């Protein structure tokens, strides 16, 4: 599958951010501005892990010769961090090639002006040339987004380690400081925070879009620090407790789901994005304070089951973007604009974590069902495409092969069917785009251990 996705990208869209597999041409979204080669950088480590070394060499050569950040381009700080910085860092740690270290640091430095706000909470969007930042015009009262400013930590800690410059670590540690000073409604973190006033925007809380990877990075910051970042640990388990109390519910049909919270009222909807939480909760279950009964692992398994149901209850056996638990339905999308599937990884990601922790064969079986559905409905002549309605009797393709399909979906599938010591959790932590970063142990950290 990786060979097919890659070969088609290379053939029809080489150097573009993504591939349009039906019309067989390049594609770019505004997330990357005029940056180029998102699929190449996102796929580097997957190629390496799958031992596709010729392809990895071609990708490396492209990075050496063409990956350029000196442009008048407005980019999403979050997307560029998780895909480009994360991708380059992983490629460096896996291959040892200096070019990736150099480019990661160069790009990290380009992102620093985003933090020039009164609070140090970064802007969502940044012009790489002028260093001028702003927020998404649609975000509540000019706010920055929790899942965006809260998903820089892992990469920035590694940038400090690799560059010898503490500035990266200082920027992300300051984000925690700002958050620590704020009151949290019911212990929850609203998705919107104003970078000028340092006050919350609308009280919307989500473990899916706009919130998701903030929680993931609290846990992984602790794990990546070789369990020395006690603050990260406490923030994660406290946040999870508040989520359990306020957001997690069981449907009358017995399916556990994570709802969204809007000013104290629940919306009984769960996003495909939220399905990553099964894997996250499983990953954290072992270190959980006061969890003698193994309750967190059970919760993770229930979320995995719910997300599997969201796939099983469709015609194409692929999951919708969001599914609901109200109006007489369970784990089914009811709105037309929530019925699409864009090759997202979260459900397979959770199967992979659950497989590693339980070795229950059902997770491989569920992963295999997803492979078959992808082959049957998403594979087209020129690559893999998302579909517009998973309840339709035949697929209507959206003509985009997302870069995260190669970075995450295919990598997690590969790891689901690999041995546990292939990128073991003991030594590696995956960033939110599935780019593995090494755990920083005490001896390796040297003088930077103070940053953790
Ligand atoms: C990816 O870019 C990352 O997984 C991110 O955390 C959420 N969205 C996409 C995949 O769905």
UniProtKB/TrEMBL annotation:
It is a single-pass type II membrane protein. GO terms for biological process: carbohydrate metabolic process. Pathway: Protein modification; protein glycosylation. One of its GO terms (molecular function) is calcium ion binding. Its EC number is 3.2.1.-. Gene3D superfamilies: 1.50.10.10. Its cofactor is Ca(2+). The active site is at 79 (proton donor), 212, 321 (proton donor), 346. Keywords: Calcium, Disulfide bond, Glycosidase, Hydrolase, Membrane, Metal-binding, Signal-anchor, Transmembrane. Transmembrane segments: none annotated. Ca(2+) binds at residue 432. Disulfide bonds join 275-307. It catalyses: N(4)-(alpha-D-Man-(1->2)-alpha-D-Man-(1->2)-alpha-D-Man-(1->3)-[alpha-D-Man-(1->3)-[alpha-D-Man-(1->2)-alpha-D-Man-(1->6)]-alpha-D-Man-(1->6)]-beta-D-Man-(1->4)-beta-D-GlcNAc-(1->4)-beta-D-GlcNAc)-L-asparaginyl-[protein] (N-glucan mannose isomer 8A1,2,3B1,3) + 3 H2O = N(4)-(alpha-D-Man-(1->3)-[alpha-D-Man-(1->3)-[alpha-D-Man-(1->6)]-alpha-D-Man-(1->6)]-beta-D-Man-(1->4)-beta-D-GlcNAc-(1->4)-beta-D-GlcNAc)-L-asparaginyl-[protein] (N-glucan mannose isomer 5A1,2) + 3 beta-D-mannose; N(4)-(alpha-D-Man-(1->2)-alpha-D-Man-(1->2)-alpha-D-Man-(1->3)-[alpha-D-Man-(1->2)-alpha-D-Man-(1->3)-[alpha-D-Man-(1->2)-alpha-D-Man-(1->6)]-alpha-D-Man-(1->6)]-beta-D-Man-(1->4)-beta-D-GlcNAc-(1->4)-beta-D-GlcNAc)-L-asparaginyl-[protein] (N-glucan mannose isomer 9A1,2,3B1,2,3) + 4 H2O = N(4)-(alpha-D-Man-(1->3)-[alpha-D-Man-(1->3)-[alpha-D-Man-(1->6)]-alpha-D-Man-(1->6)]-beta-D-Man-(1->4)-beta-D-GlcNAc-(1->4)-beta-D-GlcNAc)-L-asparaginyl-[protein] (N-glucan mannose isomer 5A1,2) + 4 beta-D-mannose. Its main location: membrane. It comes from the Eukaryota. It is found in: Endomembrane system. One of its GO terms (cellular component) is Golgi membrane. Involved in the maturation of Asn-linked oligosaccharides. Progressively trim alpha-1,2-linked mannose residues from Man(9)GlcNAc(2) to produce Man(5)GlcNAc(2). Belongs to the glycosyl hydrolase 47 family. This is alpha-1,2-Mannosidase. It comes from Pygocentrus nattereri. The gene is MAN1A1.
């Amino acid at each position: 599958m990786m060979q097919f996705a890659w070969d088609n990208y290379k053939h029809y869209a080489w150097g573009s951010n993504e591939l349009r597999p039906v019309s067989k041409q390049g594609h770019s979204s505004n997330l990357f501005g005029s940056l180029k080669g998102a699929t190449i950088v996102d796929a580097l480590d997957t190629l390496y892990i799958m031992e596709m070394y010729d392809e990895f060499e071609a990708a490396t050569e492209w990075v050496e010769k063409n990956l350029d950040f000196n442009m008048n381009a407005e980019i999403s700080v979050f997307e560029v961090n998780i895909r480009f910085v994360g991708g380059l860092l992983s490629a460096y740690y896996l291959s040892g090639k200096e070019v990736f270290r150099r480019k990661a640091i160069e790009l990290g430095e380009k992102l620093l002006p985003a933090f020039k706000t009164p609070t140090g909470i970064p802007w969502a969007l940044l012009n790489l040339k002028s260093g001028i930042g702003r927020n998404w015009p649609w975000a509540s009262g000019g706010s920055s987004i929790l899942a965006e400013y809260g998903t820089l930590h892992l990469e920035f800690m590694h940038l400090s380690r690799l560059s010898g410059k503490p500035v990266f670590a200082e920027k992300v540690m300051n984000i925690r400081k700002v958050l620590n000073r704020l009151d949290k409604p019911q212990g929850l973190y609203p998705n919107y925070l104003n970078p000028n006033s340092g006050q919350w925007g609308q009280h919307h809380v989500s473990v899916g879009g706009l919130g998701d990877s903030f929680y993931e990075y609290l846990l992984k910051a602790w794990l990546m620090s070789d369990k020395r970042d006690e603050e990260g640990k406490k923030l994660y388990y406290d946040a999870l407790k508040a989520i359990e109390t306020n957001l997690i519910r069981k449907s009358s049909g017995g399916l556990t789901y994570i709802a969204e919270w809007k000013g104290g009222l629940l919306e009984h909807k769960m996003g495909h994005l939220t399905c990553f939480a099964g894997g996250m909760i499983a990953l954290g279950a072992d270190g959980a304070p006061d969890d003698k009964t193994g309750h967190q692992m059970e919760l993770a398994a229930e979320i995995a089951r719910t997300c599997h149901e969201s796939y099983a209850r469709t015609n194409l056996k692929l999951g919708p973007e969001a599914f609901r638990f109200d109006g007489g339905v369970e784990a089914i999308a009811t709105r037309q604009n929530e019925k699409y599937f864009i090759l997202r990884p979260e459900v397979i990601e959770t199967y992979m974590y659950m497989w590693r922790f339980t070795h229950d064969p059902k997770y491989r079986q569920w992963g295999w069902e997803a492979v078959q559905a992808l082959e049957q409905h998403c594979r087209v002549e020129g690559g893999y495409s998302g579909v517009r309605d998973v309840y339709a009797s035949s697929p209507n393709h959206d003509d985009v092969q997302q870069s995260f399909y190669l970075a995450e979906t295919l990598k997690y599938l590969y790891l689901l069917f690999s041995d546990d010591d292939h990128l073991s959790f003991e030594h590696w932590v995956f960033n939110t785009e599935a780019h593995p970063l090494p755990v920083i142990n005490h001896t390796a950290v040297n003088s930077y251990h103070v940053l953790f």
